[in-house]
Write a structure and sequence with these properties.
Belongs to the krueppel C2H2-type zinc-finger protein family. By secondary structure, the protein is an alpha+beta fold. Among the domains are: 55-114, Classic Zinc Finger (Double Stranded RNA Binding Domain, 2-Layer Sandwich), CATH 3.30.160; 289-416, Classic Zinc Finger (Double Stranded RNA Binding Domain), CATH 3.30.160. Strands 1-2 form a two-stranded antiparallel ribbon.
C-alpha cells in the first residue's frame, strides 16, 4: 500500500465545517500527556480511494511495578488492579467483585443465562466466543501458541503468558504462610484456600463445595453427564482433556516427568508436583489424631476417614462402601466393568488396571523395589511398608470401637471384630 498524504477540496471543505467542539475533543484525544511520547499519525489510501487515518499508538504507559507497557492509560489502570488486588466492579446480583468492567459484563451474562456460543462437538456453551475458540482446542489437541524460549506449546494465549513469566523469573505474588510464589495473584488467592480450608464455590446441584472455581466447573460437568474426552484404549471417558492425557500414560507405561532432585520418574505431571513437595518439606496439613502431616489438605481429609471410619462412597451394584473416591472408582472398573485390557506376557493373566499388572509382574521378576528405611527389608508394594514400620515404632492407630483395643493394621482390627 503506497503511503501518501491525500489532499482534496472535499476534505478541506469538511474540515472548515467541523464544529469547534469536535476539533478540540479530537485534539485532546490525540494529544500526549506530560512525559508521554507523541503518537504517530499516518495516512493511507485504501483501494476504494477513501482516506484512512491510522493511529500508530506506541506502548508509552509503563507499569512501575512489573514494567509491562500498554498503549492506553485506561488499560494500564485496569492492569494495576492485578497488583493491588482491588476489585471496584461489583455484581448487583451476587455481590461478586471484579478488577475489570469487562469481566463484570461477562459474569452478568451468566445470571441472565446467556451462553450464545456453543461447541459443535460436545454442545458445551460459553458466554464469550474467545472461550469457545479456546475450548475447541481440547477436542482437536491443537496447541498453536509456542514459547520462544523452550518451544513448549499451549492451547491458550493466557497459558503461554503465564508460562513465559517463569522464564523471566517473575513471581511477584508470595504466600505469607508457606512462602510459595506465583506469577498471578488469582493463583495465589486460589492457593491460600489450601491453608485456610475455605471452599467458597458451591455446586447448586449437590451442595458440594470447592476451593477453586475451575474445580467446581469440572465437577458440574459430571452432573451434566459431559465426558467428551474418551480413551481410545479402554473407552474410559473424562470431563477434561488434561485428565485424559494423564490417564493415557497408564497404558503406555511412559514416565517422562523426571524429578530434578532425585531423578525419580513419573507418568503424570501432577504426581511429580506432589513428589517435589516432599523435597521442599512442604507438609502444612497435620492430623489432629496421630500427628501425621500431608502436603495437600485433600490428602489429610482422606486420611481422617481412617480414624473416623467414614465411607461415603458406596457401590450401587453390590453395596460395598469405600473411604476414598479413587478406591470406589477402581472397584467399579475392576469388579463390575468386566474390562481387562492389561495382559501379562508371562502367564496371560489379565487386569483392569495397569498398576495391577505391574504389581503382578514382580511375582515373575522377583523385584522388590520398596525398602524399609529402618531395617532394609524389601517389599513388592509400597503399601506394605507403613504397616511393617509400625513393628519398629509400636504405633497402633486402629482402635476397636467396642473394646478400645488397638491394632497395627486395619485388617487385624476388622478380624478382631
Amino acid at each position: 500500500m503506497c503511503r501518501t498524504e491525500v489532499h482534496s477540496d472535499c476534505r478541506h471543505e469538511k474540515e472548515r465545517k467541523r464544529p469547534r467542539e469536535e476539533t478540540e475533543a479530537m485534539q485532546k484525544t490525540f494529544s500526549p500527556e506530560p512525559g508521554q511520547k507523541e503518537p504517530q499519525l499516518s495516512f493511507a489510501v485504501s483501494p476504494s480511494g477513501v482516506q484512512a487515518t491510522v493511529l500508530r499508538a506506541d506502548k508509552c504507559h509503563d507499569c512501575n511495578l512489573c514494567g509491562k507497557s500498554f498503549a492506553r492509560r485506561s488499560t494500564l489502570e485496569a492492569h494495576m488492579y492485578t497488583h493491588t488486588g482491588e476489585k471496584p466492579f461489583q455484581c448487583p446480583d451476587c455481590n461478586k467483585r471484579f478488577g475489570r468492567y469487562s469481566s463484570l459484563s461477562t459474569h452478568r451474562a451468566i445470571h441472565r443465562g446467556e451462553r450464545p456460543h456453543q461447541c459443535p462437538d460436545c454442545g458445551k456453551s460459553f458466554t464469550q466466543r474467545s472461550k469457545l475458540v479456546a475450548h475447541m482446542y481440547t477436542h482437536t489437541g491443537e496447541k498453536p501458541f509456542q514459547c520462544p524460549d523452550c518451544n513448549k506449546r499451549f492451547s491458550r494465549p493466557s497459558s503461554l503468558s503465564t508460562h513465559r513469566a517463569i522464564h523471566r523469573g517473575e513471581r511477584l505474588h508470595q504466600c505469607p504462610d508457606c512462602g510459595k510464589s506465583f506469577t498471578q495473584r488469582c493463583t495465589l488467592v486460589a492457593h491460600m484456600y489450601s491453608h485456610t480450608g475455605e471452599k467458597p464455590f458451591q455446586c447448586p446441584d449437590c451442595n458440594k463445595r470447592f476451593g477453586r472455581y475451575s474445580s467446581l466447573s469440572s465437577h458440574r460437568a459430571i452432573h451434566r453427564g459431559e465426558r467428551p474426552h474418551q480413551c481410545p484404549d479402554c473407552g474410559k471417558g473424562f470431563t477434561q482433556r488434561c485428565t485424559l492425557v494423564d490417564h493415557m500414560y497408564s497404558h503406555t507405561g511412559e514416565k517422562s516427568f523426571n524429578c530434578p532432585d532425585c531423578c525419580k520418574s513419573f507418568g503424570r505431571p501432577s504426581s511429580l508436583s506432589r513428589h517435589r513437595a516432599i523435597h521442599r518439606m512442604e507438609q502444612p496439613h497435620r492430623c489432629s489424631h496421630c500427628g501425621r502431616t500431608f502436603t495437600r489438605r485433600s490428602s489429610l481429609t482422606s486420611h481422617l476417614r481412617v480414624h473416623t471410619g467414614e465411607k461415603p462412597y458406596c457401590c450401587a451394584d453390590c453395596g460395598r462402601c469405600f473411604s476414598q473416591r479413587s478406591a470406589f472408582r477402581e472397584h467399579q472398573r475392576v469388579v463390575h466393568s468386566g474390562v481387562t485390557p492389561f495382559s501379562c506376557t508371562h502367564c496371560g493373566s489379565a487386569f483392569a488396571d495397569s498398576k495391577y499388572l505391574r504389581r503382578h509382574m514382580r511375582i515373575h521378576t522377583g523385584e522388590k523395589p520398596y525398602s524399609c528405611p529402618d531395617c532394609g527389608r524389601c517389599f513388592r508394594q509400597s503399601s506394605e511398608i507403613p504397616a511393617h514400620r509400625r513393628t519398629h515404632t509400636g504405633e497402633r492407630p486402629y482402635p476397636c470401637p467396642q473394646c478400645g483395643r488397638q491394632f497395627r493394621t486395619k485388617s487385624a482390627m476388622t478380624s478382631h471384630q
